[in-house]
Amino acid sequence: MTQPNIVVIMADQLAPHWTGAYGHEIAKTPNIDALAARGMRFDAAYCNSPLCAPSRFAFMSGQLISRIAAYDNASEFRASVPTFAHYLKALGYRTCLSGKMHFVGPDQKHGFQDRVTTDIYPSDFAWTPDWEAPDERIDKWYHNMETVKESGVAVATFQTDYDDEVGFAARRWLIDRGRERAAGDNTPFCMVASFIHPHDPYVAKPEWWDLYADEDIDMPTYVPELEDHDPFSRRLMDGIEASVVPLTEEEVRRARRAYLANVSYFDSKVGEVVKAIEDIGESDNTIIVVTADHGDMLGERGLWYKMNFFEHSARVPLIMTGAGVAKGVASNACSLLDLLPTFVDIAGGDDSIIGEPLDGRSLLPLARGETDPTDEAIGEYCAEMTPYPVFMIRRGPLKYIHCDPDPPQLYDLVKDPLEKQNVAADPAYHNAAAAFAAEVAERWDSEKLRDNIIGTQKSRRALHAAMEAGAGEHWDYNPPADASQQYVRNHMDWTVAAEHYRLNPRNTNDTNS
């Protein structure tokens, strides 16, 4: 059986609502739209934890964060947890990561054979929250409204520097696979190209900013009064200072314009990767997946960034196209932890290679246009700005959100897509609300989980203090480079090097073209 290549192109903080493929009226995302038009668009895909590192660890492992203790942006991703990179390598794939995955801990590869860039955020325990002081801000790294107020235009930022490098390194790695194909090596490959955009700061290059005009940028659809927010939303607003730092309409509009500009910038990177796949002649034998680690509220409900289970924060784009994938739309709820079993399925593996229990299911039947009886996504949030775990169950049209100190929340997303009406106490939804409450109690021991989280927070803060004092070496990844093996050096005759590096257009016999 031919094993198709798998290429994942991942955004950071991209709500699907802000792409043309998902219906945004002015978003200029031609590359994402083209992939959606010829593949499967998943319309109810969720992250499993609306924060960068936990979401990515669930994505990589196929396990919920409570199972692998991946609670926040400073939780170690243990080297003993198998990832899809491990499984695909065992199934004969060459694997590569270009870009961000926010690995925390000394293992900075987690099964990837090649890692061709460094990461963009700290790999240590610096960003550890403190649930024993949940109301205290860590101003060094907590979001606040200055990020919104400073939105605008710049020729370059650390984020554009990073993504330009990620795109270049991803394309070069793919071109090298083409060179190997030309030499007779047909090893299947899996590459993850993971970009930082459109994550805040909301600062765009002029050429992307100029794609849009202020008068075309829509404002948030639903912003309740401060006193009408649920308790968890109030804690978030206090934590990011949205409840005390007012924003002008112009500031909100500018941030949303810059975000949209950066969505278009990310879309251009999608195009670069797709073009590289085409250039090496692998389009017909490659499954391309476009997704993100979580979304961004962008002022909806008065909230910004992520860290909650409302649709703009918890939903992610998920588009699959390529070998064996049907053209269509899948409405079933699913999540990022479903991608590991999907990739193993694509590669021809089965349960016999799985080293730890998985919390997801393969989406390959849905991708092929078949039916799937499962219509469910599970979420957990165990990071900053909450004193207790927050749980989400999305099943069918209903979404249930639970946090021990707070009243339950239940939304009917078909009747109320903006989540304006919490129907948890509505008599018409009594049976559903009771069933969800019972399921939460059965699935999770919230008090025990909270104790475990606080325990890891204490140990990580102690370890970070020791590391800051000089104990051990930093874990930040340095991509290996050996200039003596690059381009034309003494390891290879220059005529041999020229032949090796020359990659002719595929599907042509004209070697001079």
From TrEMBL:
Residues 4-348 form the Sulfatase N-terminal domain. It holds the Pfam family Sulfatase. CDD domains: choline-sulfatase (cd16032). InterPro entries: Alkaline_phosphatase_core_sf, Choline-sulfatase, Choline_sulf_C_dom, Sulfatase_CS, Sulfatase_N. Residues 453-499 form the Choline sulfatase enzyme C-terminal domain. Belongs to the sulfatase family. This is Choline-sulfatase.
